[in-house]
Amino acid sequence: MTVDEERVEVPYGFFDEDVLMTRDLVPLEPMVQELKFFALGVGPLLSVHTDGAGGRAALVSFTPGD
Fold first, then answer.
1. For 1-44, what is each residue's pLDDT tens digit?
2. Pairing of β 8-10 and β 19-25
3. CA 15, 10, 42 angle in degrees (round to 5)?
4. C-alpha distances in angstroms, 11 versus 24, 27, 29, 57?
């Protein structure tokens, strides 16, 4: 199995390793989807709505836990 690595830049920094992208779809609204990007050891980096209204949430800071 081959997994394509994603690259994401957010205010907190640039991530080009161990990034996973998921796509959330809304069956009742086929034009609405949300792309989410996660980094190993960090968590959510970026969430982008691709519908007309758009919407974006990006990681601005991170404090590692124990």
1. 445 578 899 999 999 888 999 999 878 877 788 899 999 999 99
2. unpaired
3. 55
4. 23, 32, 31, 11
